[in-house]
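step=predict obj=DNA-binding XRE family transcriptional regulator n=103
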Amino acid sequence: MTVLKDILLAENPDLATSYSRNDTKRELALLFRSLRKQAGLTQIELAARSGLSQSHISKMEAATGALPEVESWSRYFHACGKRVKITPYDAADRPDDELCVLI
């Protein structure tokens, strides 16, 4: 069964490129939201802990838009009791279950 999304992406290379580019943002948004919920925090509580505004946190958790800066990641993760570690490695060696963000 062919999904409408697959048809549209196959027929429009520009749309396919844009959609692919947003994959990273969607994955990050899900990660951020999941971490916050695991920590039992609302966006407002996370804002108070991190020093980021609630609207900034909302943008970080949105599936579209610009990627947040690494400093924002660090503050967000720290407020959730986590930390950011950036380790470069060859993209060919990337395990399928790891989130890889190329900056």
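step=describe
The radius of gyration is 16 Å.
step=end
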